[in-house]
C-alpha cells in the first residue's frame, strides 16, 4: 500500500519543483510506511495481546483479553476481504490517474450525474477497472506459466 500512496502523491506533486517533489514524497513515504507497518504489526500480534491480557489477575483485563481472542479470527477474515478489495480499488485508481484522458472522461461523466452518484462513481469505476486489470494479469501469468510448462 505504501507504494500506491507514493505513486498517487507523485501524480499530485508532478508539476512542483524537484526539491518539493523529493521532500513531499520522502515525508509521505516515511509517514505511510511507519503508520501502515505499525498498524499491521499491532493487528498481527492482537492474539498475543489477547492471550497476555487473559492471563492477568484483573477480571477486566481477562475479559478484554478473551474478547480480543474471540474477535481476532473474524478481524483477520474481514481484513483479507477488505484488503483484497482495496488492492483492486487502488490499482484501478493508479491506472486511471496514469491515463489522463480516461481520468478526465470519468470525472466529466461523473460531474454530469447527481451529487451522490458523482461522488461514488469514480470509486466504483476504479474498482471495476482494478478487477479487469487484475484478471488480465492473472490470465497473462497463467499463459506464461503454461508456455513454460509450469501450469498447476
Automatic annotation (TrEMBL):
Entry annotated with the keyword Membrane: yes
Keywords assigned by UniProt, alphabetized: Membrane, Transmembrane, Transmembrane helix
GO cellular component, one term: plasma membrane
A Pfam family assignment: DUF808
Protein name, as recorded: Putative methyl-independent mismatch repair protein
Annotated transmembrane regions: 22-46, 67-96, 116-141
Keyword Nucleotide-binding (UniProt): no
Amino acid at each position: 500500500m505504501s507504494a500506491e500512496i507514493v505513486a498517487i502523491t507523485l501524480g499530485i506533486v508532478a508539476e512542483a519543483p524537484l526539491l518539493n517533489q523529493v521532500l513531499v514524497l520522502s515525508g509521505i513515504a516515511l509517514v505511510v510506511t511507519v503508520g501502515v507497518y505499525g498498524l499491521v504489526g499491532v493487528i498481527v500480534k492482537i492474539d498475543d495481546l489477547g492471550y497476555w491480557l487473559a492471563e492477568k489477575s484483573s477480571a477486566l483485563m481477562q475479559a478484554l483479553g478473551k474478547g480480543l481472542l474471540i474477535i481476532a479470527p473474524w478481524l483477520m477474515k474481514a481484513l483479507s476481504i477488505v484488503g483484497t478489495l482495496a488492492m483492486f480499488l487502488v490499482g484501478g485508481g493508479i491506472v486511471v490517474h496514469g491515463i489522463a484522458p480516461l481520468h478526465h472522461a470519468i470525472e466529466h461523466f461523473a460531474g454530469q450525474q447527481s451529487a451522490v452518484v458523482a461522488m461514488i462513481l469514480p470509486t466504483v469505476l476504479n474498482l471495476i477497472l482494478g478487477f479487469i486489470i487484475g484478471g488480465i494479469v492473472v490470465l497473462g501469468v497463467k499463459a506464461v506459466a503454461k508456455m513454460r510448462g509450469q501450469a498447476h
